[in-house]
Amino acid sequence: MTAQITLIKNIWAASLGALGILSVVSCASAAPDTPLPDAAKPWAELSDCFDRSVAVPVSDAEKMAQSCSGNSAAGDPARSGIERANAYFNAASAYNALAQTGTTNALCRGAGACNQIALSLLDQSLASQQDNQVSLTGSAAQIATNRRFIVRRTLERSRALRGVANSGTVNASCGTRTNCLSDAAALLSSLTVDIPPVSEAPEAARLGCEVLDTRWRVNSDLGREREYLYVEDLRRLVRECPAYAASASDRLAEISFERAERIREGLVQADPPPSIEAALGAITDYRSTLGTDRFKLPSYRGMGSVYQALAKRDPSGARTYLESAVDAYEKASILSASGTAAERAEDLEALGTSMMQLAHISGTPGSAERQTLSEGAANALQDAVNLAPTPARYALLGDAYGDTGQCTLAIPAYKAAISGLAGAEKISTILSLSEAYDACGQPDLALQTLNQANAEGNVSADVRYEIGRKEFENGSFPAALAALSAAESGLNGMRAAETNYMMSVAETITKPSGWQKSALDHAERAVSLNARTWAYNRQACLATILRGGKDAKNGSGLARCPDAGTPEASLLRGMFFLKQAQSMDVSAYNLASQTQWRSVLRAAETAFTNGQEALADAPDRERMVRFDDLQADVDIAARLQQGLTVVQRCNREITLGPQDPVWNDLKAFYGHYGVLKCS
Fold first, then answer.
1. Any idea which of 122-126, 557-561, 586-590 has the lowest mean pLDDT?
2. Contact yes or no for 351/333 (Cβ under 8 A)
């Protein structure tokens, strides 16, 4: 079989090679009075089998195939080689036509079998008269007919090869599917197609268009690596072949759409995703399909999706991309108005989501621009819910109403969503419902929602964090500590830092077993996660002072009380020095210990004095500071002055005790942190 296939290939290659590159052209050089052949007449009877310019009739293809391949035509050894070549060719054309129509017939089982018979007949046609044996002399009409015969035979063989390849025929004479298609492509690539105006040479124009139509299909079957070839042929069909223009234009739109869809899918699924340039190319492809009705709606949807992906990939252009996404989805929602409710709801959901995203980066909070976009998003999502309600859609509607400030409408939307959601989506919606209650001035219901969710088994570090945060703000520190302790291991980033800070404060207030060490550990963890938040540094310093021990005694703990140049920072450093002085071993019989103790007191005095000096230019926010562990605002100026008073008392420059009016206030602050004693 392999030897036979190779032999047949060589015969066709040699035949075409001897003629050079074939052209499908009119015989324009003929004298004006030389009649050219008219359009091919349909086959009608046996004698037509020997005419190389007849066409396959619409209704009698089976009869033509049987007659022309029979013993009275191609099978008649008395006939000349030219006659038999014509008969074999006409029979093959009829078999190809039977395969193309797919009609049931008595000659072959299925389209593939008809194409295989056509291949064999064409081989016999070529054996009877090879292309280089076809006369290209004589009248212009004879030359034109013979040239077209060569081209038509090449075309019919290519059609037969493609038919066999795509039929799944086993043991095809051309080999594998790829081999068959490659042979067809090679035959057609040998043809240079110059299509004349139909008015001048209708038969040449028709044949040229048929070649282009078959060639693009063969190259398309071979795969996308040949896209540049079949796209060029399709474009020529649109430009030069009116009868093929509509279908070719539709196929070009389909190619562009499929190319754009691959990019769109890659933006969601591929790792790494397609480049921004590729994504913009997909937009161009989608736009090129908008003139084709069947692609208009899916292309607008695809454009919206790609623009959304671009907004995430390229934040610098997010606003422009999202504006384009809104425009695309708006057009899609209009086009889908006549479709199913479910499909239009999807378009409205995409429109609403894009408008929400655009609102978040447009204008300023509360601005008319942002409000208008948020209201548009809410309207689109409400329409989507009305058409096809889903839990996820209700959740989005709640978000949209929340953005517009309509918490009373957000609450029922979230409630409608929660029962149908699960996992992370359910947790997120529960948190959003809690926020909506807060926005409506119902903090008790906000906390109740979270506690109920937690009790029902919707266990989440985020839910427990929010419970702990709300309990902390409410002053319920034992409850806050319990919730935050359960949440801590599941959090990271800013929330983890805030959790450790609140736990440290709560432990300082509730004083559970081992609280001094735990409060310091949690405060240090908060600082390590976010050292820029001063409250965390304050708590770490205060926790160090409260714990005391060797870190205070040897002064190493001072690193937790950084000199930030503010009055408060100086106050904290002064308090640390008082704690260090108090922790030192001072002996009346050891002058060095006394000297060191006095130097630490001087350091405390210097810190308090520096704080007073910093107050001169300090803004109001640095004069009255909230200490969460005291649940009170601290007057920094007053406490700095009191710090100097404590130093004076320790240096025995003044006498001060419980009997003095200022003692209770001193004790409330300095006594609370354990730095009122001198040694």
1. 586-590
2. yes
Residue 591: exposed, middle, or buried by beta-carbon count in 10 A (0-12, 13-18, 19+)?
A: exposed
- Nearest-angstrom CA–CA distance, 120 and 108: 13
Residues with Cβ < 8 Å from 119, sequence gap 6 or more? 92, 157, 160, 161, 164, 173, 174
Distance in angstroms (rounded) separating the CA atoms of residues 679 and 675: 9
Spatial distance between the Cα atoms of 106 and 117, rounded to a whole number of angstroms = 13
Structure tokens at 222: 């071979």
How far is it, in rounded angstroms, from Cα 355 to Cα 375?
9
**How much of the chain, in percent, has pLDDT values that exceed 90?**
86
Cross-strand pairs, 42:
55
DSSP letter, residue 632: E
Question: What length does the chain have?
Answer: 679
Q: How many CB atoms lie within 10 A of CB 661?
A: 6
Predicted confidence at residue 19, as pLDDT, reads 42
Distances (CA, A) of 614 to 298, 567, 675: 66, 5, 23
Residue-wise pLDDT for 143-172, tens only, equals 989 999 999 999 999 999 999 999 988 888
Q: Which residues pair with 627 in a beta bridge?
A: 632
- Spell out the domains of the chain, with CATH numbers in brackets: 1-22+31-195 (no CATH), 268-388 (1.25.40.10), 548-679 (no CATH)
Angle between helices 407-418 and 423-439 (to 10 degrees): 160
Residue 592, Cβ density class (10 Å: 0-12 exposed, 13-18 middle, ≥19 buried): exposed
Q: Would you state the structure tokens that stand for residue 624, as one six-digit string?
A: 């009255």
Question: Do residues 122 and 92 touch, judged by C-beta distance below 8 A?
Answer: yes
- Give the count of beta carbons closer than 10 Å to the beta carbon of residue 335: 17
- At 23 the three-state DSSP class reads strand
Contact predicate 526/552, CB 8 Å: no
Confidence grade of residue 102 (pLDDT, cut at 50, 70, 90): confident
Helix ranges (DSSP H) in 336-442: 341-360, 368-387, 391-404, 407-418, 423-439
Spatial separation of the C-alpha atoms in residues 457 and 451, rounded to whole Å? 10
Indicate the SS3 state at residue 633.
strand
d(CA 251, CA 479): 67
pLDDT confidence of residue 25: 52
Q: How would you classify the pairing of strands 191-193 and 22-24?
A: parallel
Note the pLDDT of residue 22. Answer: 55
Contact 542, 673 (CB under 8 A): yes
Other beta carbons less than 10 A from residue 399's beta carbon: 24
Query: What percentage of the chain exceeds 70 in pLDDT?
Result: 94
Res. 26: pLDDT tops 70 = no
Q: Are strands 624-627 and 632-635 parallel, antiparallel or unpaired?
A: antiparallel
Contact 437, 445 (CB under 8 A): yes
Residue 27 is predicted with a pLDDT of 40
Q: Based on the number of CB atoms within 10 Å of its own CB, is 141 exposed (0-12), middle (13-18) or buried (19 or more)?
A: middle
Q: Which tens digits make up the pLDDT trace of 188-214?
A: 999 999 999 988 889 899 999 999 999
Q: What is the per-residue DSSP string for 172-202?
A: -TT-SHHHHHHHHHHHHHTEEE-PPPTTT-H
Cα separation, 510 vs 288, in Å, equals: 69
pTM of the shown model = 0.79
Question: What pLDDT does residue 588 have?
Answer: 78
Asked whether the bond before 274 is cis by omega within 30 degrees of 0, the reply is no
Q: Report the distance separating Cα 138 and Cα 143, nearest Å.
A: 6
Q: Count other Cβ atoms within 10 Å, centred on residue 486.
A: 17
How many CB atoms neighbour CB 447 within 10 A? 22
Are the CB atoms for 395 and 414 separated by under 8 Å? Answer: yes
